[in-house]
Design brief:
The chain is 31% helix and 21% strand. By secondary structure, the protein is of the alpha/beta class. Its EC number is 5.4.99.9.
Length: 376
Protein backbone atom coordinates (compact mmCIF):
# COMPACT_ATOMS: atom_id res chain seq x y z
CA UNK A 1 0.00 0.00 0.00
CA UNK A 2 1.30 3.50 -0.76
CA UNK A 3 1.85 5.94 2.07
CA UNK A 4 -1.51 6.52 3.77
CA UNK A 5 -3.37 9.79 3.86
CA UNK A 6 -4.38 9.14 7.46
CA UNK A 7 -2.86 7.02 10.23
CA UNK A 8 -5.18 5.85 13.00
CA UNK A 9 -3.49 4.72 16.21
CA UNK A 10 -5.69 2.21 18.00
CA UNK A 11 -8.14 -0.34 16.57
CA UNK A 12 -10.84 -0.03 19.22
CA UNK A 13 -14.21 1.63 18.70
CA UNK A 14 -12.84 5.16 18.35
CA UNK A 15 -10.18 4.21 15.84
CA UNK A 16 -12.22 1.74 13.82
CA UNK A 17 -15.18 4.10 13.42
CA UNK A 18 -12.91 6.97 12.39
CA UNK A 19 -11.09 4.73 9.90
CA UNK A 20 -14.31 3.44 8.35
CA UNK A 21 -15.77 6.92 7.93
CA UNK A 22 -12.57 8.43 6.52
CA UNK A 23 -12.22 5.65 3.95
CA UNK A 24 -15.90 5.22 3.06
CA UNK A 25 -16.97 8.87 3.03
CA UNK A 26 -13.82 10.79 2.16
CA UNK A 27 -12.17 8.16 0.00
CA UNK A 28 -8.81 8.50 1.72
CA UNK A 29 -6.23 5.79 2.35
CA UNK A 30 -6.12 4.84 6.03
CA UNK A 31 -3.55 2.84 7.95
CA UNK A 32 -4.79 1.52 11.32
CA UNK A 33 -2.17 0.30 13.77
CA UNK A 34 -2.48 -1.25 17.21
CA UNK A 35 0.23 -2.38 19.59
CA UNK A 36 -1.83 -5.40 20.59
CA UNK A 37 -1.96 -8.47 18.36
CA UNK A 38 -5.65 -8.02 17.56
CA UNK A 39 -8.29 -5.48 16.59
CA UNK A 40 -11.36 -4.44 18.63
CA UNK A 41 -9.51 -2.96 21.61
CA UNK A 42 -10.95 -3.91 24.97
CA UNK A 43 -14.11 -5.17 23.23
CA UNK A 44 -12.11 -8.04 21.68
CA UNK A 45 -13.77 -11.44 22.00
CA UNK A 46 -12.52 -14.88 20.98
CA UNK A 47 -13.01 -18.53 21.82
CA UNK A 48 -10.87 -19.76 24.68
CA UNK A 49 -9.07 -23.11 24.78
CA UNK A 50 -12.36 -24.81 25.67
CA UNK A 51 -14.21 -23.27 22.72
CA UNK A 52 -16.17 -20.82 24.89
CA UNK A 53 -16.56 -17.33 23.43
CA UNK A 54 -15.32 -14.85 26.03
CA UNK A 55 -14.54 -11.15 26.25
CA UNK A 56 -10.82 -11.11 26.95
CA UNK A 57 -10.89 -7.76 28.74
CA UNK A 58 -14.05 -8.18 30.75
CA UNK A 59 -17.77 -7.99 29.94
CA UNK A 60 -18.87 -5.51 27.29
CA UNK A 61 -22.62 -4.98 27.10
CA UNK A 62 -23.91 -2.75 24.34
CA UNK A 63 -26.74 -0.35 25.14
CA UNK A 64 -27.71 3.07 23.81
CA UNK A 65 -30.48 5.61 23.48
CA UNK A 66 -28.81 7.12 20.41
CA UNK A 67 -30.49 5.85 17.26
CA UNK A 68 -27.68 7.38 15.21
CA UNK A 69 -25.22 5.03 16.93
CA UNK A 70 -27.29 1.85 16.76
CA UNK A 71 -28.24 2.55 13.13
CA UNK A 72 -24.61 3.09 12.19
CA UNK A 73 -23.33 -0.09 13.87
CA UNK A 74 -26.24 -2.10 12.44
CA UNK A 75 -24.57 -1.75 9.03
CA UNK A 76 -21.84 -4.06 10.33
CA UNK A 77 -23.64 -6.58 12.53
CA UNK A 78 -26.87 -8.37 13.22
CA UNK A 79 -27.96 -8.18 16.84
CA UNK A 80 -29.01 -10.55 19.60
CA UNK A 81 -31.53 -9.10 22.04
CA UNK A 82 -30.07 -9.04 25.53
CA UNK A 83 -31.03 -7.14 28.68
CA UNK A 84 -28.26 -7.13 31.25
CA UNK A 85 -28.99 -8.10 34.84
CA UNK A 86 -26.61 -7.99 37.78
CA UNK A 87 -26.94 -9.49 41.25
CA UNK A 88 -24.92 -8.46 44.28
CA UNK A 89 -23.76 -11.07 46.79
CA UNK A 90 -24.52 -9.70 50.26
CA UNK A 91 -23.57 -12.26 52.86
CA UNK A 92 -24.49 -15.10 50.52
CA UNK A 93 -27.81 -13.56 49.51
CA UNK A 94 -28.14 -12.45 45.89
CA UNK A 95 -30.03 -9.19 45.42
CA UNK A 96 -30.66 -7.07 42.30
CA UNK A 97 -28.26 -4.28 41.47
CA UNK A 98 -29.01 -1.41 40.84
CA UNK A 99 -31.12 -1.11 43.97
CA UNK A 100 -34.83 -1.61 43.35
CA UNK A 101 -37.87 -2.63 45.35
CA UNK A 102 -36.88 -6.31 45.27
CA UNK A 103 -33.45 -5.43 46.68
CA UNK A 104 -34.97 -3.66 49.68
CA UNK A 105 -37.53 -6.37 50.37
CA UNK A 106 -34.85 -9.06 50.25
CA UNK A 107 -32.27 -7.23 52.38
CA UNK A 108 -34.65 -6.01 55.08
CA UNK A 109 -37.45 -8.60 55.05
CA UNK A 110 -39.94 -5.98 53.92
CA UNK A 111 -43.02 -6.19 51.73
CA UNK A 112 -42.91 -2.82 49.98
CA UNK A 113 -45.48 -2.86 47.19
CA UNK A 114 -45.50 0.57 45.59
CA UNK A 115 -43.04 3.12 44.29
CA UNK A 116 -44.31 5.58 46.89
CA UNK A 117 -43.44 3.17 49.70
CA UNK A 118 -39.95 2.65 48.30
CA UNK A 119 -39.38 6.38 47.91
CA UNK A 120 -40.52 6.90 51.49
CA UNK A 121 -37.97 4.27 52.59
CA UNK A 122 -35.20 6.14 50.78
CA UNK A 123 -36.36 9.54 52.01
CA UNK A 124 -36.30 8.39 55.62
CA UNK A 125 -32.67 7.32 55.32
CA UNK A 126 -31.19 9.81 52.86
CA UNK A 127 -28.63 12.25 54.23
CA UNK A 128 -29.23 15.67 52.76
CA UNK A 129 -26.35 17.33 50.95
CA UNK A 130 -26.45 20.87 49.60
CA UNK A 131 -23.75 19.92 47.11
CA UNK A 132 -22.61 16.52 45.88
CA UNK A 133 -18.87 16.87 46.36
CA UNK A 134 -17.96 13.22 45.80
CA UNK A 135 -19.31 9.72 45.20
CA UNK A 136 -20.12 9.12 48.87
CA UNK A 137 -22.33 12.20 48.80
CA UNK A 138 -24.00 11.01 45.60
CA UNK A 139 -25.10 7.73 47.22
CA UNK A 140 -25.96 8.71 50.80
CA UNK A 141 -28.01 11.65 49.50
CA UNK A 142 -30.17 9.16 47.58
CA UNK A 143 -30.41 6.04 49.74
CA UNK A 144 -28.70 6.66 53.06
CA UNK A 145 -25.60 5.36 54.75
CA UNK A 146 -26.55 1.73 55.40
CA UNK A 147 -27.18 0.88 51.75
CA UNK A 148 -24.07 2.87 50.84
CA UNK A 149 -21.97 0.77 53.21
CA UNK A 150 -23.62 -2.49 52.10
CA UNK A 151 -23.54 -2.14 48.32
CA UNK A 152 -21.30 0.73 47.26
CA UNK A 153 -18.38 1.55 49.51
CA UNK A 154 -16.45 -1.73 49.44
CA UNK A 155 -17.02 -2.32 45.74
CA UNK A 156 -15.90 1.21 44.87
CA UNK A 157 -12.81 0.97 47.08
CA UNK A 158 -11.79 -2.24 45.30
CA UNK A 159 -12.63 -0.93 41.83
CA UNK A 160 -10.76 2.36 42.11
CA UNK A 161 -8.29 1.83 44.94
CA UNK A 162 -9.84 4.91 46.53
CA UNK A 163 -12.64 5.61 48.95
CA UNK A 164 -15.82 6.97 47.32
CA UNK A 165 -15.24 10.19 49.27
CA UNK A 166 -12.13 10.68 47.10
CA UNK A 167 -13.88 10.19 43.76
CA UNK A 168 -15.98 12.52 41.63
CA UNK A 169 -19.71 12.24 42.32
CA UNK A 170 -20.34 10.99 38.77
CA UNK A 171 -18.72 7.60 39.48
CA UNK A 172 -21.50 6.33 41.72
CA UNK A 173 -24.15 8.69 40.36
CA UNK A 174 -23.98 6.67 37.10
CA UNK A 175 -25.78 3.80 38.89
CA UNK A 176 -29.54 4.40 39.02
CA UNK A 177 -31.77 3.82 42.04
CA UNK A 178 -35.24 2.49 41.24
CA UNK A 179 -38.50 2.47 43.14
CA UNK A 180 -40.07 -0.30 41.04
CA UNK A 181 -39.10 -3.94 40.35
CA UNK A 182 -37.18 -3.22 37.13
CA UNK A 183 -34.07 -5.39 37.59
CA UNK A 184 -32.33 -4.51 34.32
CA UNK A 185 -28.94 -2.91 34.80
CA UNK A 186 -29.56 -0.43 31.97
CA UNK A 187 -32.72 1.37 30.96
CA UNK A 188 -31.71 2.24 27.38
CA UNK A 189 -34.13 1.78 24.51
CA UNK A 190 -31.61 -0.29 22.52
CA UNK A 191 -30.05 -3.21 24.40
CA UNK A 192 -28.44 -5.88 22.22
CA UNK A 193 -25.25 -7.84 21.69
CA UNK A 194 -23.53 -8.28 18.31
CA UNK A 195 -24.87 -11.59 17.05
CA UNK A 196 -21.46 -12.86 15.90
CA UNK A 197 -19.47 -11.09 18.59
CA UNK A 198 -17.54 -7.85 18.79
CA UNK A 199 -14.47 -8.99 16.86
CA UNK A 200 -16.64 -9.90 13.87
CA UNK A 201 -18.24 -6.45 14.02
CA UNK A 202 -14.79 -4.83 13.95
CA UNK A 203 -13.66 -7.04 11.06
CA UNK A 204 -16.58 -5.69 9.01
CA UNK A 205 -15.96 -2.12 10.13
CA UNK A 206 -12.38 -2.32 8.88
CA UNK A 207 -13.11 -4.35 5.74
CA UNK A 208 -12.58 -1.62 3.16
CA UNK A 209 -10.16 -1.54 0.21
CA UNK A 210 -8.73 1.78 1.41
CA UNK A 211 -8.04 0.53 4.96
CA UNK A 212 -4.92 -1.38 5.94
CA UNK A 213 -4.69 -2.83 9.44
CA UNK A 214 -1.45 -3.74 11.18
CA UNK A 215 -1.44 -5.21 14.67
CA UNK A 216 1.53 -5.65 16.97
CA UNK A 217 2.87 -2.29 15.78
CA UNK A 218 4.07 0.63 17.90
CA UNK A 219 3.47 4.16 16.69
CA UNK A 220 7.11 5.00 17.41
CA UNK A 221 8.17 2.38 14.86
CA UNK A 222 6.00 3.74 12.05
CA UNK A 223 7.97 4.92 9.05
CA UNK A 224 5.19 5.90 6.65
CA UNK A 225 4.44 9.54 5.91
CA UNK A 226 0.87 10.77 6.27
CA UNK A 227 -1.20 13.94 6.22
CA UNK A 228 -3.33 13.41 9.31
CA UNK A 229 -3.10 11.40 12.53
CA UNK A 230 -5.99 10.08 14.61
CA UNK A 231 -4.78 9.27 18.13
CA UNK A 232 -6.97 7.10 20.38
CA UNK A 233 -4.35 6.09 22.95
CA UNK A 234 -3.59 7.81 26.26
CA UNK A 235 -3.07 11.51 25.60
CA UNK A 236 -0.23 11.73 28.12
CA UNK A 237 1.62 9.01 26.20
CA UNK A 238 1.42 11.06 22.99
CA UNK A 239 3.24 13.87 24.77
CA UNK A 240 5.78 11.57 26.45
CA UNK A 241 4.14 12.40 29.81
CA UNK A 242 5.88 15.76 29.92
CA UNK A 243 3.58 17.00 32.71
CA UNK A 244 3.49 13.62 34.47
CA UNK A 245 1.50 10.43 33.98
CA UNK A 246 -2.28 10.51 34.03
CA UNK A 247 -3.64 7.81 36.36
CA UNK A 248 -5.59 4.95 34.81
CA UNK A 249 -7.21 1.95 36.46
CA UNK A 250 -6.58 -1.49 34.99
CA UNK A 251 -7.96 -5.01 35.46
CA UNK A 252 -6.65 -8.53 35.68
CA UNK A 253 -8.69 -11.71 35.43
CA UNK A 254 -8.63 -15.20 36.83
CA UNK A 255 -10.43 -17.73 34.67
CA UNK A 256 -12.39 -20.81 35.64
CA UNK A 257 -14.05 -23.19 33.17
CA UNK A 258 -16.47 -25.87 34.31
CA UNK A 259 -18.16 -28.65 32.39
CA UNK A 260 -21.83 -28.06 31.53
CA UNK A 261 -22.73 -31.28 29.71
CA UNK A 262 -26.39 -30.32 29.34
CA UNK A 263 -25.58 -26.78 28.29
CA UNK A 264 -26.71 -25.37 31.63
CA UNK A 265 -25.52 -22.04 32.99
CA UNK A 266 -23.58 -21.75 36.24
CA UNK A 267 -24.88 -18.37 37.47
CA UNK A 268 -28.45 -17.06 37.46
CA UNK A 269 -27.28 -13.91 35.64
CA UNK A 270 -24.21 -12.90 33.64
CA UNK A 271 -22.56 -10.85 36.39
CA UNK A 272 -22.52 -11.21 40.16
CA UNK A 273 -21.01 -8.31 42.09
CA UNK A 274 -19.12 -8.84 45.33
CA UNK A 275 -19.26 -5.57 47.27
CA UNK A 276 -17.60 -6.89 50.43
CA UNK A 277 -13.96 -5.96 50.91
CA UNK A 278 -13.46 -9.42 52.40
CA UNK A 279 -13.70 -10.77 48.84
CA UNK A 280 -10.67 -9.71 46.76
CA UNK A 281 -12.45 -9.58 43.38
CA UNK A 282 -15.22 -7.19 42.38
CA UNK A 283 -17.38 -9.36 40.14
CA UNK A 284 -17.72 -12.73 38.41
CA UNK A 285 -18.88 -12.90 34.80
CA UNK A 286 -20.27 -15.93 32.97
CA UNK A 287 -19.97 -15.10 29.28
CA UNK A 288 -22.47 -17.52 27.82
CA UNK A 289 -25.25 -15.35 29.24
CA UNK A 290 -23.94 -12.51 27.08
CA UNK A 291 -23.25 -14.46 23.91
CA UNK A 292 -26.11 -16.97 23.93
CA UNK A 293 -23.62 -19.72 23.12
CA UNK A 294 -24.74 -23.26 23.90
CA UNK A 295 -21.74 -25.33 24.91
CA UNK A 296 -20.62 -28.25 27.02
CA UNK A 297 -18.53 -25.93 29.17
CA UNK A 298 -18.89 -22.47 30.65
CA UNK A 299 -16.15 -19.98 31.46
CA UNK A 300 -16.15 -17.56 34.39
CA UNK A 301 -13.98 -14.46 34.81
CA UNK A 302 -13.06 -13.29 38.30
CA UNK A 303 -12.22 -9.60 38.02
CA UNK A 304 -9.49 -7.91 40.04
CA UNK A 305 -8.95 -4.16 39.61
CA UNK A 306 -5.34 -3.05 39.57
CA UNK A 307 -3.20 0.06 39.38
CA UNK A 308 -0.87 -1.74 36.96
CA UNK A 309 -1.50 -2.97 33.43
CA UNK A 310 -3.21 -1.72 30.29
CA UNK A 311 -5.22 1.47 30.86
CA UNK A 312 -8.96 0.82 31.14
CA UNK A 313 -10.52 3.65 33.10
CA UNK A 314 -9.44 7.26 33.62
CA UNK A 315 -9.56 7.96 37.37
CA UNK A 316 -12.16 10.72 37.91
CA UNK A 317 -10.62 13.08 40.46
CA UNK A 318 -10.33 16.87 40.18
CA UNK A 319 -6.53 16.86 40.22
CA UNK A 320 -6.45 14.31 37.39
CA UNK A 321 -8.86 16.40 35.35
CA UNK A 322 -6.65 19.44 35.90
CA UNK A 323 -3.61 17.50 34.67
CA UNK A 324 -5.55 16.34 31.62
CA UNK A 325 -6.48 19.93 30.82
CA UNK A 326 -2.78 20.77 30.52
CA UNK A 327 -2.41 18.05 27.89
CA UNK A 328 -5.68 19.11 26.23
CA UNK A 329 -4.28 22.62 25.84
CA UNK A 330 -1.36 21.15 23.89
CA UNK A 331 -3.72 19.04 21.79
CA UNK A 332 -5.83 22.09 20.90
CA UNK A 333 -2.77 23.64 19.25
CA UNK A 334 -1.90 20.56 17.21
CA UNK A 335 -2.24 20.72 13.44
CA UNK A 336 -3.21 17.55 11.65
CA UNK A 337 -3.89 15.46 14.79
CA UNK A 338 -7.31 14.40 16.11
CA UNK A 339 -7.65 13.03 19.63
CA UNK A 340 -10.71 10.85 20.16
CA UNK A 341 -11.91 8.19 22.60
CA UNK A 342 -11.83 7.34 26.27
CA UNK A 343 -8.05 7.43 26.69
CA UNK A 344 -7.32 10.33 24.35
CA UNK A 345 -9.99 12.53 25.97
CA UNK A 346 -9.50 11.11 29.48
CA UNK A 347 -13.22 10.39 29.87
CA UNK A 348 -15.14 7.51 31.40
CA UNK A 349 -17.29 6.65 28.36
CA UNK A 350 -19.56 3.77 27.43
CA UNK A 351 -19.09 2.11 24.04
CA UNK A 352 -21.99 3.95 22.43
CA UNK A 353 -20.59 7.25 23.68
CA UNK A 354 -17.22 6.46 22.10
CA UNK A 355 -18.93 5.68 18.78
CA UNK A 356 -20.94 8.91 18.97
CA UNK A 357 -17.80 10.90 19.78
CA UNK A 358 -15.93 9.33 16.85
CA UNK A 359 -18.79 10.07 14.42
CA UNK A 360 -18.89 13.67 15.64
CA UNK A 361 -15.10 14.03 15.43
CA UNK A 362 -15.10 12.70 11.87
CA UNK A 363 -17.70 15.25 10.78
CA UNK A 364 -15.92 18.09 12.57
CA UNK A 365 -12.51 17.32 11.08
CA UNK A 366 -13.21 15.71 7.71
CA UNK A 367 -16.72 16.87 6.89
CA UNK A 368 -19.68 14.74 5.87
CA UNK A 369 -19.62 15.31 2.09
CA UNK A 370 -18.48 12.42 -0.03
CA UNK A 371 -15.15 13.09 -1.72
CA UNK A 372 -15.17 13.08 -5.52
CA UNK A 373 -11.55 11.99 -5.73
CA UNK A 374 -11.23 8.40 -4.59
CA UNK A 375 -7.82 6.73 -4.69
CA UNK A 376 -7.49 3.76 -6.97
Amino acid sequence: MPDPDVVVVGAGFAGAVMAERIAAVRGLRVLVIDRRDHIAGNAFDARDQHGVLIHRYGPHIFHTNAAKVSDYLSRFTEWRAYEHRVLADVGGRLVPMPINRTTLNALYGLSLRSSDEVQAFFDARAERRERLENSEDAVVAKVGRELYETLFRGYTRKQWGLDPSELHAQVCARIPVRTNDDDRYFGDAFQCMPADGYTALFERLLDHPLIEVRTGVEFADLRERYDHLVWTGPIDEYYDRRFGALPYRSLRFETETRATPSGELLQPVAVINHPSEDVPYTRVTEYRHLTGQVHGASTLHYEYPSAEGDPYYPVPRPENRALYQRYAALAAREKGVTFVGRLARYQYLNMDQVVAQALAAFTAVFGAERSRAVHA
